[in-house]
């Protein structure tokens, strides 16, 4: 994803993957879910929807029901958008990617919003990449602050401090998420090993009986 329009496209694909929606409902959901899209307007949404339809990722149908009461007037407010088979495949392929662009500020937020639909390995790669990127940023800001401290006024220094604290908080947050993902992966691997190598005398895929059950036999 190289531009804001690519981020908006992914967000639209993800929301339509849940259910077909009016343009009005799409805009409302985008504004609620993604802080970076708080200023999203119909002027930016509809060109993106049109381009996605031309590429065969979505289709628009005129809804038979009454449009939402606050929707803009006109025919386009009655369109209901839904994913095509190509759109679903494109969304799945995008969620499976974990390159450097997925670690950047705006891109990371959108990808994280759809982590529930992303596989565990990809989630972990994105989280680790994001943490690495922030650690690099943190070191750069600290070095810059040390070089310029004597030349800055108290308000600029306070702004620098605020920026450092924000990055440090996100790094701690990422550390917790990464630990959780790794812990879940280890638990899954242990379960797989037990299923493949059961205890002697116990069929694969079964659990050992507890003491109370055993005493009844």
Structure description:
The chain is mainly α and 217 residues long. It folds into two domains: 4-101, Orthogonal Bundle (Arc Repressor Mutant, subunit A), CATH 1.10.10; 119-196. The chain is built from eight helices and three strands. It has helices at 4-18, 23-33, 42-54, 85-95, 105-113, 120-148, 154-196, 211-215; strands at residues 21-22, 58-62, 79-83. The longest helix has 43 residues, at 154-196.
| Strand line-up of the largest beta sheet | 1-3-2
Pattern of helices and strands: HEHHEEHHHHH
Query: What CATH architecture label of the largest domain applies?
Result: Orthogonal Bundle
Question: How big is the Rg?
Answer: 24 Å
Uncertain regions: pLDDT < 50 for 5+ in a row?
Answer: 69-76
